[in-house]
Amino acid sequence: MRQQIVIFTVFLIIGSVFAGVIQEFKLKDDTIITVQATNNTKVPSIVWTVDAVECLKEAITVYADEPLRASAYLELFQAKHPGNWSVAVGYTTLISDSDLYVETTVSGGGKKDKTGVLYRIFN
């Protein structure tokens, strides 16, 4: 019984962490946006991935313009994980020798907005 409780607790904790890796939210005009991390990520901890998703979500809720979103995303992530970070948005090919990176995708927003836009923050 004790082992079952421990296993359940571990799954509950892991599920809570992964829930932060996908975030769905509404903008002011009721547009639904989904931000999620892809499998193309290399960071020391899942906490970094969750932080990347949360920072991008905040940038999207503040700015409608893609360059401003990218700049805000960079600034927010930099505040949590200091380093020499850069952001790439909407790429089809990206060649980089980065040691650390998190790739996210943004989807939703209806026909007028881009869907499935890739963001990569890298160091």
Number of strands: 5
Q: Percentage of helical residues?
A: 40-55%
CATH homologous superfamily heading: Protein Inhibitor Of Neuronal Nitric Oxide Synthase
Instruction: Give the C-alpha Rg.
Output: 16 Å
CATH level 1 class label:
Alpha Beta
The H-and-E topology, N to C, reads as HEEHHEEE
What is the overall shape? Answer: globular
Which architecture name does CATH use? 2-Layer Sandwich
How much β-strand is present in the residues?
15-25%
Average predicted local confidence, pLDDT = 82
The CATH topology turns out to be: Protein Inhibitor Of Neuronal Nitric Oxide Synthase
Classify the secondary structure makeup into a structural class. alpha+beta
Count of the domains:
1
Indicate the low-confidence ranges by residue numbers: 5-19
| Strand order of the biggest β-sheet | 1-2-4-5-3
Put simply, the count of helices is 3
Largest sheet: 5 strands, antiparallel
Amino- and carboxy-terminal Cα gap: 45 Å
What do you see in this structure?
- With 123 residues, the protein is an alpha+beta fold.
- The protein has a single domain, classed as Protein Inhibitor Of Neuronal Nitric Oxide Synthase (2-Layer Sandwich), CATH 3.30.740.
- The protein contains 3 helices and 5 strands.
- The chain has helices at 2-19, 46-62, 66-80; strands at 22-26, 32-37, 86-89, 101-108, 117-122.
- The protein has a 5-stranded antiparallel sheet, covered by helices on one side.
- Strand 1 and strand 2 form a beta hairpin.
- Helix 2 packs antiparallel against helix 3 (66-80).
- It is globular.
- Residues 1-19 form the signal peptide.
- Keywords: Signal.
